[in-house]
């Protein structure tokens, strides 16, 4: 009998998505009758706007969309994404520089698979979204963490990035607004980091999926626009999921220089072929329309953001910087680690999160999932009443810590 492993080492090394795992456990507990409130999934609680749904219904009735279409995306959607990018970011690209992908995650994977050879290093600011490490690892790349914390609002400096750079560094991953922290780099900070990357001949992969979700005096700035001297060494990742409440429709895109987009399209032609045509036509309606529905959602997220941050900072042992974008709060709970709570002494934020789920029936994602233990990520993309109830339960339980 063969002793060779049944599953490849490469795939065995991939971890399950921690955010989806927490969300699944919370939903399972809810299905079993427990009143769980989940802060785990990064998913707007709004329905997809009606005009987008109607575009999908119309597309489903069109026989041409029942067939294969180009692997890289419908030409009309690629054109619309190019126009939307110019409108929203001031960055001019040709439709041939756009690849339509099965959600933002496929864009992330294809970007790193296309750019990296084994041993190439990628600078990743921590805390980071859970999918980035797995995509880099699958591509044979080496992740180099640049760790930030609450004292700087989770922003990395040029000095930190330079200290992490080696002769093997090929890519800087730049994310603003950030998942999981909500950090947003100012235009000046964005430009300084972009100029540093250009000076050292680095590629920049920039994830802009939360571009429209910024609050207060924060301002979204595309690093591609801010630093033209980066030239053709920028790859932009984006999609409709967060802006238009379309997480289940699975449409994202990758924008880059023609050679990179052609190579990534070749990969996609073998991996998945085209994105579902009905979803693509829904995305076309989304990116071609105005942003009024987006603005209504943003106003709700802003209100919830302020409520959540205020309530979290009222809990002894919890400190939460104000997130400037996306829809997440990332409080430090380091002061609570090791304290006695309901007869237990959690030794990590992961153990504390597990205790909270069991005792308060509130689901949060521990910082271990994002590369920085000692923190929680809480999404405020849920109803106002559930948000207040969930954080109130947290406060009541954590007040018992001794």
Write a compact overview of the structure shown.
The chain is α/β, with parallel strands linked by helices and 402 residues long. Helix content is 41%, strand content 12%.
Descriptive report:
- The model has no long low-confidence stretch (mean pLDDT 95).
- This protein has 402 residues and is an alpha/beta fold.
- It has helices at 9-12, 18-31, 50-60, 75-89, 103-115, 131-138, 158-164, 187-199, 223-226, 258-271, 277-288, 292-313, 349-360, 384-398, and strands at residues 37-38, 98-101, 121-126, 142-147, 169-175, 203-207, 234-239, 252-255, 328-329, 362-363, 365-366, 376-379.
- Helix 5 (103-115) crosses helix 10.
- The strands form three sheets. The protein has a seven-stranded mixed beta sheet with strand order 2-8-7-6-5-3-4, with helices on both faces.
- Strand 5, helix 8 (187-199) and strand 6 (203-207) form a beta-alpha-beta unit.
- It contains 14 helices and twelve strands.
**Largest sheet, if any?**
7 strands, mixed
Q: What is the number of strand segments? A: 12
Strand content: 5-15%
Mean pLDDT equals 95
Gap between N and C termini: 55 Å
Uncertain parts: none
Order of strands in the sheet with the most strands? Answer: 2-8-7-6-5-3-4
Rg, rounded, reads: 21 Å
Structural class: alpha/beta
Q: What coarse outline follows from CA principal-axis ratios?
A: globular
Estimate the helix proportion, in percent.
40-55%
> What's the helix count?
14
Order of helices and strands: HHEHHEHEHEHEHEHEEHHHEHEEEH
């Amino acid at each position: 009998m063969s002793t060779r492993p049944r599953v490849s080492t490469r795939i065995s090394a991939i971890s399950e998505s921690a955010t989806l795992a927490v969300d699944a456990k919370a939903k399972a507990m809810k299905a079993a009758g427990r009143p769980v409130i989940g802060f785990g999934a990064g998913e707007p609680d709004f329905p997809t706007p009606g005009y987008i749904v109607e575009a999908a219904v119309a597309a489903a009735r069109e026989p041409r969309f029942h067939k294969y279409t180009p692997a890289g995306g419908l030409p009309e959607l690629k054109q619309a994404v190019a126009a939307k990018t110019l409108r929203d970011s001031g960055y001019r690209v040709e439709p041939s520089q756009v690849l339509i992908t099965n959600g933002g995650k496929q864009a992330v994977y294809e970007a790193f698979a296309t750019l990296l050879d084994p041993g190439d290093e990628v600078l990743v600011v921590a805390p980071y979204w859970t999918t980035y490490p797995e995509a880099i690892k699958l591509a044979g790349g080496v992740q180099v963490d640049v760790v930030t914390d609450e004292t700087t609002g989770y922003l990395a400096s040029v000095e930190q990035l330079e200290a992490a750079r080696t002769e093997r560094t090929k890519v800087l991953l730049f994310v603003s607004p950030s998942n999981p922290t909500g950090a947003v780099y100012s235009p000046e900070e964005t430009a300084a980091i972009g100029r540093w990357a250009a000076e050292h001949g680095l590629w920049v992969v920039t994830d802009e999926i939360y571009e429209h979700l910024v609050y207060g005096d924060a301002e979204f700035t595309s690093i591609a626009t801010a630093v033209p001297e980066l030239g053709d060494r920028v790859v932009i990742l984006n999609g409709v999921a967060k802006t238009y409440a379309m997480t289940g429709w699975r449409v994202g895109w990758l924008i880059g220089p023609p050679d990179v987009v052609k190579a990534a399209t070749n990969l996609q032609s073998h991996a998945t072929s085209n994105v579902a045509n009905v979803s693509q036509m829904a995305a076309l309606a989304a990116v071609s329309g105005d942003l009024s529905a987006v603005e209504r959602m943003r106003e709700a997220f802003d209100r919830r953001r302020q409520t959540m941050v205020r309530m979290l900072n009222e809990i002894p042992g919890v400190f939460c910087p104000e997130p400037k974008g996306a829809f997440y709060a990332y409080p430090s709970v380091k002061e609570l680690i090791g304290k006695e709570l309901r007869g237990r002494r959690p030794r990590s934020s992961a153990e504390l999160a597990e205790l909270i789920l069991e005792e308060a029936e509130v689901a949060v994602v521990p910082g271990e999932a994002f590369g920085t233990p000692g923190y929680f990520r809480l999404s405020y993309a849920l109803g106002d009443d559930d948000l207040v109830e969930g954080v109130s339960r947290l406060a009541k339980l954590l007040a018992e810590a001794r």
